[in-house]
Specification:
Layout lengths: L5 E7 L2 E9 L39 E6 L2 E5 L1 H6 L2 H5 E9 L8 E9 L4 H14 L1 E9 L2 E10 L2 E7 L18 H4 L3 H13 L12 H15 L24 H10 L12 H15 L1
Helix pairs in contact: 5-7
């Protein structure tokens, strides 16, 4: 069982739901160490006192806010909690909005919300209300000294808290060099649009996330094995030369490309892993319909 990152309660109206917060994502990035290229020894980092130059242990490290140059106000965890006790212990829902109204650019990081003891029924009530209304709850929560805007979303049997970016953290598109917003101004014909729609329709299928995986990570690990086998663990591969740019015509025959794409068989998807859970998800709608 994953360790709770935060404990508190969801609050909306007079409703109070005790919950725990669990990260909903797993990090599978390649764990690459930094090495000194002269002797391939690993590089380490030290936390040190900038006045004495001596290393500092974790137990001796505290937080402080620099209110002027080299002058700090010490802030303990209890100080940070007491600054606004309610904000640090409550996911306070401001409003409910249609799920489609929140642009994907605002979503940041997902967390599972789990009901704490005694909160199961009210948790289920909120979950089913979000599901039936097709709404998300817009709320705020304080985690790690930062107040986050967040969206409470019903995902299967869980309520997911997605931290959101604030509006002023989203880069506006006004100064981006984007194609015109109308078909005519963008130079797109009705024929091209119809063919593109046919191509998308032909490549459409049900969302099955289990069939996708990080193939690049697998390729890098395969390269690692290859270098070990060839006894090239200390060989630094030089960068390959940049390919020469072709100076041909930039005019694209979009209709011809679309026709070729429609005539070709769609690329095969990665091998799908059939699991009991995915089978259950496929049959669940049929069972609900029959009910």
């Amino acid at each position: 069982m994953a360790r709770a990152l935060w404990k508190g309660a969801i609050s909306f109206g007079l409703v109070h739901i005790p919950v725990e917060l669990i990260s909903a994502s797993l990090d599978h990035e390649l764990d690459l160490s930094m090495l000194d290229r002269r002797d391939f020894a690993p590089i380490g980092y030290k936390r040190y006192n900038k006045q004495t130059g001596k290393e500092v242990e974790w137990d001796d490290i505290i937080k402080g806010y620099e209110y002027k140059t080299d002058e700090y106000v010490v802030l303990s965890d209890e100080d940070l909690r007491q600054a606004n006790v309610k904000a640090t212990q409550t996911i306070d829902i401001f409003t409910f909005v249609d799920a489609a109204e929140v642009p994907l650019t605002f979503y940041e990081h997902p967390y599972y919300l789990l009901p704490a003891k005694g909160g199961e029924k009210v948790y289920a009530l909120l979950r089913e209300t979000l599901r039936k209304a097709n709404k998300v709850g817009i709320a705020s929560v304080v985690m790690r000294t930062k107040q986050h805007l967040c969206a409470l979303v019903c995902v299967e049997d869980a309520i997911v808290l997605n931290t959101l970016r604030y509006a002023d953290e989203i880069r506006p598109t006004d100064d981006l060099d984007l194609p015109a917003s109308t078909l005519k101004a963008a130079g797109i014909s009705d024929k091209e649009l119809k063919m593109a729609l046919s191509l998308v329709e032909g490549m459409s299928e049900a969302w099955e996330p289990e069939q996708y995986h990080d193939s690049y990570r697998e390729d890098v690990l395969a390269l690692v094995k290859k270098k070990i086998k060839a006894k090239q663990t200390k060989t630094i591969t030089p960068p390959a030369p940049e390919p020469e740019e072709e100076h041909g015509s930039n005019v694209i025959d979009l209709v011809a490309l679309l026709q070729q794409s429609l005539g070709k068989k769609a690329p095969a998807a990665p091998a799908r892993k059939r699991t009991a859970s995915s089978t259950a998800r496929k049959t669940a709608p049929a069972r609900r319909k029959a009910a």
